[in-house]
Specification:
single chain
Length: about 45
């Protein structure tokens, strides 16, 4: 139980750090919304 609990905390912490980096990138580059459109087009191919 403790091993799984610690693993969950580590994954949750990494998830928060990734979200923080994403927020910083969105603040520095407001064009991230435009970059999401071509990504969706690539999935359609």
């Amino acid at each position: 139980m403790r091993k799984n609990y610690n693993l969950f905390i580590v994954i949750f912490f990494i998830f928060i750090t990734l979200n923080a980096c994403g927020k910083r990138g969105s603040l520095e580059r407001p064009q991230t919304d435009d970059n999401l459109e071509p990504a969706e087009v690539e999935k359609n191919y």
